[in-house]
Task: structure prediction
Amino acid sequence: MTSSDDVLATPLQYLKGVGPRRAADFAHVGLVTVEDLLYRFPLRYEDRSRLQPIASLKAGQSASVTGRILSCHLRSTRRPGFKIFEALVGDPSGALRVTWLNQSFLRDVFAPGQHVVLFGPVEMRVGGLQLTNPQYEILDDEEGETIHTGRIVPVYEKTGSVTPKIQRKLVYAAVQRLPADLPDHLPEAIRARFDYPSRMAALVAAHFPPDGASLEALNQFATPAQQRLIFEEAFLFQTGVMARRRSAAAERKPMPVGVDDRIRESARRVLPFKLTPGQKQALKEIVDDLQRPQPMNRLLEGDVGAGKTIVALLAALVAMENGLQVAFMAPTEILAEQHFFNISQLLRTSRFRVALLTGATASARRREQLAEIEAGTIHLVVGTHALVQGDVRFKQLGLAVIDEQHRFGVLQRALLRAKGLHPDVLVMTATPIPRTLALTVYGDLDVSVIRDMPPGRLPIRTLAKPESRRDEVYQFVRAQLDAGRQAYVIYPLVEESDKVDLKAATEMADHLAQEIFPAYRVGLLHGRMKQDGKEHVMKAFAAGELHILVSTTVVEVGVDVPNASVMIVEHAERFGLSQLHQLRGRVGRDRHQSFCFLLYQAPLSDEARGRLKAMTDTTDGFEIADRDLALRGPGDFFGTRQAGVPTFRLVDLIRDRALLDLAQREAAQWFDRAAPTPAAVDRLLHGWEQRFKLIEVG
Result:
């Protein structure tokens, strides 16, 4: 028999029954080796030892049935091009109509006499009960009672041309090839303490459960075999995080920072107001990190308007007072300009020079600035991703501050660190991150949280109103404008290129300007405008020259207009929860009471109702983030793979919170007890980033 590692590392192409085409389909969803195939759980499990007789079916349930196709045909409808494939399926107890909508290809799949297993919703229709659009499998008679029937059966997600039934055969073949001495990733002591099965036994039972296994536990992924494999993955991930932390702790920065009375006085002179307790604590944690010999790797979390920027600026001041340069990166040019303006104002009485470097910087000016940055005569550079381009060289980069973290590619952060020989890195985010995600996404960053708001800020009052009450909302907005305030009207774009939505936003701006608020100036901002056009509109709104800004969601990130006290979100049911919260954070940035109206079109889906309820219930971004994660799941929480969210095969960040916590504790204890050598740590990290699809954070 081949060695264990060889079996698991075998490319799927060489597994009997796969071949190049199916291998390409598997590779498309990230399954390349036998190990990849075995470490993907079934979508669900069906008890085909107890399939329901057709005569016992009731409307409103989902059911698994098996029988023979008695007849089948493709039927045209009055709608042009819309066809229905119908079949009559019988078992010894009776017959049942089955329909598939607009799936004409099924006439080449099904034929009378075939033995089929069907799973789907049972509905009452004219003429009796029917199954609509069920999942299906065709059984070969010679297979009889095999891995496909007569037992609890794993049902896999269809992968390209690879049906659930073919996958079951391939997984069964792969399981048969596993050697009895399969190496176990879990330390023996941990396995014994939690009474987990061996790796080999767990893989077999997770795919082909033994007789008597609980179907309910299997479909909740709560059997000992499933829990062991989920824990194994979480443990491997957390040991990798620990290894990364340990290797980071072994790094040394060229110049640790010192803090004395002169620096404290310099910070006091810059500070325009008293810090909140949360800001003080965060600043203390950051400055403590700056004074350590290892480079800082810290995430600063705070809700919209919690005052993260001033904390980051005070940290920058400490670095600059120590003779180091600071890079301050923002995700957009508008936001970079805003940071530049605010930081320049705060540092105007200091001896430090601040520069703005973005893609829009004129080439002659850019050459001048690059020379000054390299010479060290510019101390703090504010910019966009232009700061990580090859021609920017710092004399002594000591601190990189990165704002609105998951708008940036992880790679850009790595490039920035590469420029400064291990600078301290402070990542700021205004999207509060649920604790489970913080453990995983930012497992190798220390986290500081600012939970309190600056004194005098009033919570934003949020009201959800149906479309039919639009006029009273407009009346309220008019009163705010009359009192000298400004307003946002936010329009959803499914895509920034969606012409229909863009037309609707443009028409809305015209309608408001001409018919609803003719006495006030209305501007329009959307993602398809050129950069200088966007900035012109934004500056006019910030300066009070425009009273109402109709905008698509490009206004979401970081725009700061304290005089804007009211926001209307059109079609609020179309926005995600975190997105709604970020948008709402554009108002409430001053001492005036602010308001956010969520206009929706009835009827609402349950999900949309849940989102709007969360918005009217709370303004706490941390609670919003937890609810959003529960509503949407982690994949969509960040909205993009570049966020550095680890790719787990088995772990579900919501379902498996307790196991993730346990794995983190166990990994930390194992590291302390096992005390692996640097070479062992390197081996552990080898392939770890690739396995979890992560690039170095920071």
Observations:
- The mean pLDDT is 84.
- The two ends are 44 Å apart (CA to CA).
- The domain at 261-450 is CATH 3.40.50.300 (Rossmann fold).
- The longest strand covers residues 62-76.
